[in-house]
Amino acid sequence: xGRMTATPAPTPDSASATNRPKRVLLAAPRGYCAGxxxxxxxVEKALEQYGAPIYVRHEIVHNKYVVQTLERKGAxxxxxxxxxxxxxxxxxxxxxxxxxxxxxxxxxxxxxxxATCPLVTKxxxxxxxxxxxxxxxxxxxxxxxxxxIGTSGEAPDHIQLVDGPEDVAKVxxxxxxRVVWLSQTTLSVDETMETVDALxxxxxxxxxxxxxxxCYATQNRQIAxxxxxxxxxxxxxxxxxxxxNSIRMVEVAKQAGVPAAYLVDFASEIDEAWLEGxxxxxxxxxxxxPDILVQEVLEWLAERGYADVEIxxxxxxxxxxxxxxxxRNKDLRAEAEKxxxxxxxxx
Length: 347
Hints:
Layout: H1 12-19, E1 23-28, H2 34-50, E2 54-57, H3 64-73, E3 75-78, E4 89-92, H4 99-107, E5 111-114, H5 118-132, E6 136-140, H6 146-152, E7 159-162, E8 179-183, H7 189-202, H8 216-229, E9 234-238, H9 244-255, E10 261-264, E11 280-285, H10 291-302, E12 308-313, H11 332-341
Parallel strand pairs: 1-11, 1-12, 2-3, 2-4, 4-5, 6-7, 6-8, 9-10, 9-11
């Protein structure tokens, strides 16, 4: 008879890891912010009131699912207002546009709906005011992002982009006593303040905006991600690859120390290998993501044993914005037809 060998008793740590139930830590708040909700409803309302097509300059919000859903309803997304045939309705996205885009629409004889998020509009107005007062404006943001392009277009002679702390060394201003910083609304709060600190070191008289430019929803979602990251072994953020605030959430999770964090548009993009050895999965979504996509991820995780869902709530959100004024008591289709019949506008 062979000699029996005893199996070592599990250590407390390995025992707890083995016996710990699988769970999902679901962030609250997550998903749609007030500006995104307003913009998406604006497209749906325009289609309902005026019929298809409704042209939209750029993606109304940065989310693949939302764009595809609106396309099926009759929205047509274009890169420039100049692509829209005269006599049509064009909507400007939540990210905002430069004054030159409004002029392009006027010359193109288009009726317009401005779905710019009011919090982005606030930054535009700050840029106009400080430019009139002849300040140098240091706009913290990511080069090429639609929001940055729109804000910069309000005062191109006064604004220079600062794309992170590493850009600060090359910033030059006319008068160090007349400098103000503004920011893109969807940035990482921590990275933005790191950039601001570097700018203040170089320009001690640097003025801050009257109120925080980074939107409440961006900040709330980053705070929730930090909370999840402290309790989870894996964080999944639902959002599109061109969504600045969604990308920032993944970065914040990694900086907060979570072993792994990923961005996915759909549940089908999750790799089962990510779950190996994981008992706690943190889940959230960017500010342009409808909750149906989060629910699909929850179902996908439940099928793999992660049926226990614990809400991690870090803030309450109740802010709402009224729809663009052009959708209230105005026949835009008739206005568009009148514009089409008019003589071409001189540039």
